[in-house]
Design a protein that fits this description.
2-enoyl-CoA Hydratase, Chain A, domain 1; Rossmann fold; 29 helices; eight-stranded mixed beta sheet; six-stranded mixed beta sheet; single chain; N-(1-d-carboxylethyl)-l-norvaline Dehydrogenase, domain 2; alpha/beta
Length: 718
Amino acid sequence: MSTDPMRSALSLEVVDGIAVITFDAPAPVNALNSRLAGEFDAIFAQLEGDDAIRAAVLCSGKADSWIAGADIEELAAITSAADAENLSRSGQRMLDRLSALHKPVVAAIHGACLGGGLEVALACHWRVLSDHPKSVCALPEVQLGLLPGAGGTQRLPRLIGLQAALDLILTGKTVRPRKARTLGLVDDLVHPAILRAVAMQRARELADGRRTRVQRRSGATELLLEDNPVGRAVVFRQAREQVQKKTRGAYPAPFAAIEAVAEGYANGIARGLDAEARAFGRLAMTDVCRQLTFLFFATTALKKDSGVANADVVARPVRRLGIVGGGFMGAGIATVAVQHDTLVRIKDASLERITGALRAVRAVLEEQRRRKRRTRLEMDDTLARVSGGTDLTGFRRADLVIEAVFEDLAVKRGVLAEIEAVAPEAIFASNTSTIPIAQLAETAARPERVVGMHFFSPVHKMPLLEVITAPTTSDETVATAVAYGKQLGKTVIVVRDGPGFYVNRMLAPYLNEAGALLDDGASIEAIDAALLAYGFPVGPITLLDEVGLDIAGKSGAIMVDAFGDRMVPSRTLQRVIESGRTGRKGGRGFHTYDEGKRGAPDASVYALTPAGASRRAFADGDMQDRTVLPMLNEAVRCLEDGVLRSPRDGDVGAVFGIGYPPFRGGPFRTIDTLGAAEVVRRLEALDTRFPGRFAPAARLRDMAARGERFYPASGRPL
């Protein structure tokens, strides 16, 4: 494919009076940028000035995408709100002209139709979408800290209704073909093979007057809530309340989008577009936008990262996967694998556990079917890829075997020996969360094929995969694990072997300090609320219950052995574990549980704390510093020790692995925001109060002394 930046992105040919406009940018995907404005203007002028042209079809020259959105590189280079606002207004003018053309334009959409791409489609007079898994529509701008800036806040509600439009604009959720047709987002849904033919036919029909643009049909709910000012006020109020509840006010973009939509309804589309452009300019300069844009670039870069320095290393294909251990994690890995065209064989000690694993796979697929993400036939075809048994039948031809058994080195070594005997060509991956891979590989016949693949729970929802390399792991093994992780749709970081690897090692002091706050008399509710306010999706005490207190106890012991006193768990946590509480899975932990549903904090826990039943108040800022700062400090130590390859990997790992607040960018981005000197100052103050737990990492001290940062202060955020 040509990548000549001087080549025109748009071309036009006329077929029987219908202009076929092909968007084929000199890049892997079609993206909108300011340089395209002149090309679109020229195309529009040709459409308007040529009497032989009766209508037009806009299609893509790319195999699997239509228009993937705006050029994020161009957006990241903007340095002022005024420039960002002007960029938005330029896009609005271009699509206003498209929408106002007297000759109808039909969008023939196959593949990704995202952001500015969907805004282009909304400005067309008819939309035909291919019924194909790669055809998806979305306005994901809020995920970059922005709002749709080329008229999307005005056109979408007028097409599909206020409530449906707000749902898409405020969440950035992806809409698949059948849902797009049901919403009225597109007018026709067709097989990809006839997409162009149907689009051409619709263009002729529109030009002849045999078909008119579909108008939004209002049902009883819409008439009650959307088509009168009082009802709309209710919808907008509920939307603001929901956004506040979900984001706790940390993300300004959804609120700005609501106001732009409301302005358009109250005072007309022109005023709405003006509000949209002004908000776009303002949001583009926020720190939230910069951090979310950084994460976009970071994850994009990881998609191209093979995990090894040698570019000549080729990953082995993984078509058959063996999983030893049909528990929660094993079943979760199988669930994801079968959805990505992998034949899976599960082995466990009993048929009851195998049945449970297969039932867990089916439950996830059934939920997808209920949500109309797959048909029953597709679900049955997917389920046919997984089977199980109590022996290693079917493992001989496995390309990769993942063990997800009990977190015990001897048990895992036993599994490794069995697999090496039965499947000598297979790569062996451990899903351990704490045990060093080098220790596992010590007894291996082929240590070069032993690697860590640390998935996060629940596997079908958590996006991160840590690939852990031991000194003996070959580049081919690493590249294969990374490539297969990407095949499963995971964001993959490669980390060097060591106790806890990166994510769990960095998480340990955070959870330990939450326990220390309980020791000192803080309440469960207050600790969790403080960290929710910081931006975490759940508080640390709730997280301990979710992870499992027994697992936390075992991993805690490994951390203490490796890192000494700074990783010693709190007395409260030790006593709670000794009491036999295991968290959600056991029905009793720091909270009460009713049939697996978490209830209120269990006040009886306080009797196990050094402070006793009495609780006292702590400032949110103090609790946040005590828990978050040691996490940042440990992340720097992981970089010092070579566990992490780069700050980028550390930030992505924290955000995608434990839910570190995306609007803060990650631990290293947070340190840059605060300044290394300020982080050191706060750590030293805490270390004076609590000796031994908060001593700043050597690299952090050096950076503070030299005024250094992990990332450049300006320019591209990587």
